[in-house]
Amino acid sequence: MRKAKEVIRLTYGFGLSQRQVARTCGVARSSVADYLARAERAGISWPLPDGISDQEIEKKLFSSASESPGKRPLPDCAYIQQELRRHKKYNLTLDLLWQEYKQIHPDGYQYSQFCVYYRRWRKKLDYSMRQEHVWGEKLFVDYGEGLNLVDPKTGEPVKTQLFVAVWGASNYTYAEATLTQQLPDWIGSHIRAFEYFGCVPQAVVPDCLKSAVTRACLYEPDINPTYADLAEHYNVAVFPARPRKPKDKAKVETGVLIAKRWILAVLRHRTFYTLKELNQAMAELLEQLNSRLLRKMKKSRRELFESFERPQSGSLPQTAYEYADWKNPRVNIDYHIEVDHHYYSVPYGLLGAKLSVRLTARTVEVLHKGARVACHPRSYDPHKYTTLKEHMPLAHQKYLEWTPSRMIQRAARIGPATAQFVEAILLSRRYPEHGYRSCLGIVRLEKHYPRERIEAAANRALTFNSLSYRSLKSILAKGLDRFTEEPPKTPSLFHENIRGDSYYH
Of 48, 215, 299, 458, which has the most beta carbons under 10 Å away? Predict the structure, then answer.
């Protein structure tokens, strides 16, 4: 509008030619002619009427008669947007809505102009709030698609994931490649990122992937227990981005694009066979990225980080976080819990309670209502027991009925062979309580099989000394209890082709 008003002023106020006006205003002569033609049609000259605003002048100059609602009805853009959202599952298109519009208004706009009006209206709704980032406050993390490795054995491509962490205020960046987005890789990338920065932010802003958020919610998302444990270890908060709101983490969205442009694009022609080799090459380019001068700031990401971000950040703990899984087993009647197919004892007073277990590579820490009630060295022997004597009861007060004799009597209801089998299991264990779980499973087989079959299976298991619930159940499932095992036939030592010992005398 400023250019148009200046053209009108110089032409009608000073009587300059169109060529002179074009040279003075820095516009094309055809544009001057167009402005003057519009002003003549609108009845505008110089000086302008008192009190007229720029919006009114623009409306008079640039509103076309073809755009007048009286000539052609404008499409209802709000209705179009509402229909597109409401019927998204049907893949509703603008073309179909235009056809409906033409049925109501046969003299309406054609499809291309119909789309122009809607998109022009829709564009006005796309507004964003500018985020102001405080030094040392937030670290944004996310994944992108990484380069492919080459399997040295098969030559097949192996996909990788690009992990990127970006500080909110300085844009200081960390990037590495991982094989997956699973929890161990997710946690490991955070640990290495914190070590690379040498400090920690006040808060981490991740996406809503399963490794970070077990249940996405706009108001109260559930943080993955292992991720929450990491945040507690480093004394940082976790603020997940809202579901389907990528602008909440726009910093790292841009950071992923920059990492692809200045790191992955440079390495696109190289062949990598191991993840270590790829990350070494990425680390060199990452240093160059963080040392590049930002055009507007005239400083590098590293200079901004060291000058302003690091002083406001938290310090690293003395030890790095040790990866831990979390389980929620329930205590069985033998006061043991099952964790990764191994059994660990807990105080017998917790029978039937549901506990929380923090499982690291070396230890198994058992928690009840936030308090530690047991701790064991981790064992990788399946179906074995780790028992502390202090966890064993002096007398089975409340659960006194669960004794070895009680187990044998219960099995005797099925038959003598089953009772003998249960007794053999209890005697084979270091502590009889270790066999309770197997014995309970055996007596409960009566719900699925007749007693005669269980008796036959118990006889067969005793014959082969297979003293476990699994072997008994396998015999029943495969129907081996219906067959009697015949002793192997001993081959005869007498044959016409055998010379005998007298031949050698």
Answer: 458
Best CA proximity match to 267, nearest among 144, 145, 147: 147
Beta bridge partners of 44: none
Question: Residue with structure tokens 């789309």?
Answer: 115
Residue boundaries of the structural domains of the chain: 2-63, 77-123, 138-312, 325-390, 404-482
**Helix pair 404-412, 436-443: axis angle to 10 deg:** 20
In angstroms, rounded to a whole number, what is the distance separating the alpha carbons of residues 175 and 193? 8
* Alpha helices per DSSP H over 343-467: 404-412, 416-428, 436-443, 451-463
CA distance 185 to 210: 12
Instruction: Give every CB contact of residue 476 below 8 A, 6+ residues apart in sequence.
Output: 445, 449, 453, 454, 457
For 15-47, what is each residue's pLDDT tens digit? 888 888 888 888 888 888 888 888 888 888 888
DSSP-H helix ranges across 198-274: 225-234, 250-259
- Give CA–CA dist 389/419, Å, rounded: 28
List phi, psi (to 5°) of 423: -65, -40
CA dist., res. 60 & res. 4, Å (int)? 12
Q: In which residue are the tokens 């480093």 written?
A: 234
Query: Phi, psi at residue 404, to the nearest 5°?
Result: -55, -40
Q: Are 136 and 201 in contact (CB under 8 A)?
A: yes
- What is the rounded distance in angstroms from the CA atom of residue 118 to the CA atom of residue 112? 10
124 vs 143: CA distance, rounded Å: 31
- Given this structure, which CATH class describes domain 138-312? alpha beta
Letter for the amino acid at 178? T
Question: Residue 174: CB partners within 8 Å, gap ≥ 6?
Answer: 164, 165, 166, 192, 193, 196, 197, 286
The residue count for the chain:
505
- Locus of tokens 């991740």: 206
Q: What are phi and psi of 58, to 5 degrees?
A: -60, -40
DSSP 64-101: -GGG-TTTSPPP-HHHHHHHHHHTGGGT--HHHHHHHH
The residues with which 314 forms a beta bridge, in sequence order, are 200
Residue 300's DSSP bridge partners are 293
Q: Are 133 and 250 in contact (CB under 8 A)?
A: no
Q: Among candidates 194, 196, 179, which has minimal Cα distance to 290?
A: 196
93-108 pLDDT, tens digit per residue, is 899 999 999 999 888 8
CA 348 – CA 357 distance, rounded (Å): 16
**Chain-centre distance for alpha carbon 220:** 17
Residue corresponding to tokens 């077990």: 214
Tokens standing for residue 499: 């010379």
What's phi and psi for 357, nearest 5 deg? -125, 125
pLDDT digits (tens, 9 = 90+) for 54-110: 778 777 777 654 444 446 888 999 888 888 878 877 788 899 999 999 999 888 899
Residue whose entry in the numeric block shows the structure tokens 């692809």: 260
